[in-house]
Each structure stands twice: as C-alpha cells, then as structure tokens.
C-alpha cells in the first residue's frame, strides 16, 4: 500500500494564545520539566498523569508549593493561574491515555521511559493534540516512520525537546554559519560523554545500561542535533554511517562500551558522533565545526580559529557572541539574565510555547526527530556487523 503524504514541513497550526499543557511521566525528569515551566508565560498546566500516585502527588506539590525566591527570576503570571486551577490528575496504567483524550489539553508533554515515547506520541497526535517528547523520540527506524506518517496525516506538531539545539555555542555558531563566517562546512563532531556509572542502579537510567549492551549509540540526539540543524540550513542530509563499539570489559559487562560513529552527508560533510557513559571521562558533547574559513570547538575549552588568529576562553566566547542575535539567542540571554539554572532549557521552552502561541513552525519538527532518533537503531546495526556501512532513510517528503 502506497502512503499518500501530506507534508508537515514548516507546519503552521492555529495559534494558541494560552497553551493548555498536560504532563505525562512525573519522575525525576518530569518534575524537573514541570519546575522549569513556572517561568514560561502563556502556559496553563491542566493535567498530570503517571503510573504512581506518589509521583502525581509530588507534581501537585510542585504546582501548589512554589514560593518566590530572591535568587532566581520571578515566575510568569500564568504560573500563578496554573497553580490555582483545579488539575485533572490521572494515575495508573491507563493514566497517559486518559490524559491524552482529555478535552483539557492542547499539548501532551511526554517525560516517560524511552520505549513509550513513540506509542504515546502517536496516540496523542491522533487525538488531535500537539506533542512534546523527550529524547530520543523513537528507538527504531520503524518508530521514526510512525511519527512522521502520523504527523503528516494529522497535521499536528511533534516537537522533540532537544535542549542542546539551544546551547549558546550551538546558537551562536549556527548564526555565524548562516552568515558565511565558516565558509563551506567540511567536518563536524558531536557526542555525549558523561560518566553515568554510579546511576546504573537507578531504574530511570536502565536505558543507558541497555544501550551499552546493545552496542550502538542509544542516546545520539544531544550530539547530532546541533549538527543536523546546520545540515538542514544548507539543504544537506545524512546519508550513510559506519559505527563501532568497544567492549573493553566484555559482552557481559555494561562498562567500557564506548561507541564511535562516522557519518557522511549528501554534500560530502563528514561527522564524528561519540557516546560513552561508562568511563571516567570529563563531561563533553564535543561540539566541533570545521569550515573552509573557520574552526570552532566548545570542549574542553571554547576555541575559535580563523586565518586572522586563534581565540580561547572568554575571548573566543566574545567573538562567537558577535554573531547576529537570533530570537533563540535572545531567549538564552534572557534566561541567563534571570539567573535561571539552565538558560538553554529556558530558551527551548519559551521558544516552543511562543511558536505555538503565534501559530509559527517549530524549530525542531517531526523530520528532525526521526532523522536524529533513527541513529539509535542504525548505529547498533552497523556495530553488530563489525562497522558495515548502513544507509540512513530520507524521511522528508
């Protein structure tokens, strides 16, 4: 059966002056997300859902117990309205579905386990809701196609909440890239190097451990997303990868399974993507851009190099911030000025809600979610075959 496609590129939907949002999954990440939203205007939290009554109670306490702090920015006016509203709370195995089909929400925000991301996102879009879903949005190519086809059929937004696209370095280098500062992009690097060994006993991080056993890169989006946006800006896309995973501690151990993936694009750009959460390496997302006119790297030290010289640390940051300020960069600065813990989360949240309010296309669409998330399966497939080349699907119409 041939699927008749209606594009969801640059999707515009009816403006939502007040965005009614329901949160599904109220564990550690869900509660952290809920706390972030106290600073976002134009939002009304109308529903909460979780398997656990204790988690729902904790989320209600977050909504009801917020008090002004002198150390951080004041909450939005809408937050007070949200806290005072009578929430719809759902508990149990059918809690997510009941929230999704509620008439009280416009957006379903998914902070659940990875395996449930796609099924719940598909159900929500089919129920006429927009979706915000944590990373990765899917864990297989089949699931990626499910997200794409559902978004196209329903014309609902599917926003993957990839906050690394709103990192100041990513925003500044993207602005400079689009101004011609880097010249032709030749190579880029991204990754997720984060020592998670002490968290493996935590049920919420079992997906990391499972990923190490699987042998691919189970968490590719932090590293690839900022690069993916540069490719999209240049009408380029990833076409092929080879992936290898070391097994220093053996197949029966979750330790030492670092993954390295090489990707080529349609226009000949090479990309190095890495994942390592089981060795004592310093935190890094690599974040490296190589162009014919300039080089920039965030880790371990911010560095910028052109034919005119080399800048590091504060001097390099100042040079990067000389880029034309985009709307996203201004939001990052706003979050920083308000003293918020993580300005890139604030920029992501505020931009997402702002676009919904104005009826604008989102910065990250369902095709981005699919292209970046499909690497979960494809890196594993290549690594299991000893680094054999694997084709990357073309999800965009």
Low-confidence stretches: 67-71
Order of helices and strands: EHEHHEHEHEHEHEHHEEEEEEEHHHHHE
Strand order of the largest sheet: 14-13-12-11-7-10-9-8-15
Helix content: 25-40%
The percentage of residues in β strands lies in 15-25%
From the helix content, strand content and strand pairing, which structural class follows?
A: alpha/beta
Give the number of DSSP strands: 15
The overall pLDDT average reads: 92
Count of DSSP H/I helices: 14
Q: Sheet bearing the most strands, described?
A: 9 strands, mixed
Shape by Cα distribution: globular
Q: From the alpha-carbon coordinates, what is the Rg to the nearest angstrom?
A: 21 Å
Distance between the termini: 17 Å
Q: Describe it for me?
A:
The protein is of the alpha/beta class and 397 residues long. 37% of the residues lie in helices and 20% in strands. The chain has 14 helices and 15 strands. The protein has helices at residues 28-36, 53-64, 77-84, 95-100, 114-126, 141-154, 168-178, 206-214, 221-233, 313-320, 327-337, 343-358, 366-373, 375-384; strands spanning 19-24, 43-50, 88-91, 107-110, 130-133, 158-160, 185-193, 238-245, 259-265, 270-276, 288-291, 294-297, 303-306, 309-312, 390-391. The strands form two sheets. The chain has a nine-stranded mixed beta sheet. Strands 3-2-1-4-5-6 form a six-stranded parallel beta sheet, sandwiched between helices. Helix 5 runs parallel beside helix 6. The model is unreliable at 67-71 (pLDDT under 50).
């Amino acid at each position: 059966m041939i699927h008749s496609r209606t594009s969801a590129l640059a999707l515009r939907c009816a403006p939502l002056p007040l965005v009614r949002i329901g949160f599904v999954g109220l564990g550690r990440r869900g509660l952290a997300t809920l706390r972030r939203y106290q600073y976002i205007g134009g939002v009304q939290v109308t529903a909460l859902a979780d398997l656990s009554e204790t988690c729902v109670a904790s989320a209600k306490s977050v909504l009801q117990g917020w008090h002004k702090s002198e150390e951080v920015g004041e909450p939005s006016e809408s937050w007070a309205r949200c806290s005072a509203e009578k929430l719809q709370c759902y508990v149990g195995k059918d809690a997510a579905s009941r929230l999704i089909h509620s008439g009280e929400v416009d957006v379903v925000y998914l902070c659940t386990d990875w395996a449930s991301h796609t099924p719940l996102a598909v159900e929500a879009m089919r129920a006429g809701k927009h979706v915000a879903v944590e990373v990765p949005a899917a864990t297989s190519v089949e699931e990626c196609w499910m997200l794409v086809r559902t978004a196209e059929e329903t014309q609902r937004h599917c926003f993957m909440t990839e906050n690394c696209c709103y990192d100041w370095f990513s925003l500044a280098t993207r602005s400079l890239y689009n101004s011609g500062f880097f010249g032709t992009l030749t190579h880029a690097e991204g990754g997720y190097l984060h020592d998670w060994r002490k968290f493996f006993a935590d049920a919420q991080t079992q997906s990391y451990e499972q990923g190490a056993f699987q042998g691919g890169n189970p968490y590719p989006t932090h590293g690839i997303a900022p690069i993916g946006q540069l490719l999209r800006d240049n009408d380029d896309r990833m076409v092929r990868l080879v992936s290898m995973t070391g097994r220093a501690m053996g197949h029966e151990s979750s330790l030492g399974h670092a993954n390295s993936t090489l990707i080529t694009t349609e226009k000949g750009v090479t990309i190095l993507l890495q994942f390592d959460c089981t060795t004592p390496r310093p935190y890094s997302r690599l974040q490296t851009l190589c162009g014919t006119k300039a080089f920039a790297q965030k880790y371990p030290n911010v560095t910028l190099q052109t034919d005119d010289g080399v800048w590091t640390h504060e001097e390099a940051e100042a040079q990067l911030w000389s880029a034309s300020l985009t709307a996203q960069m201004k939001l990052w600065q706003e979050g920083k000025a308000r003293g918020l813990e993580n300005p890139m989360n604030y920029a992501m949240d505020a931009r997402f809600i702002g676009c919904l309010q104005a009826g604008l296309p989102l910065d990250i669409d369902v095709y981005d979610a699919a292209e970046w998330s499909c690497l979960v399966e494809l890196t594993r497939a290549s690594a299991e075959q000893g680094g054999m080349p694997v084709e990357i699907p073309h999800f965009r119409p």
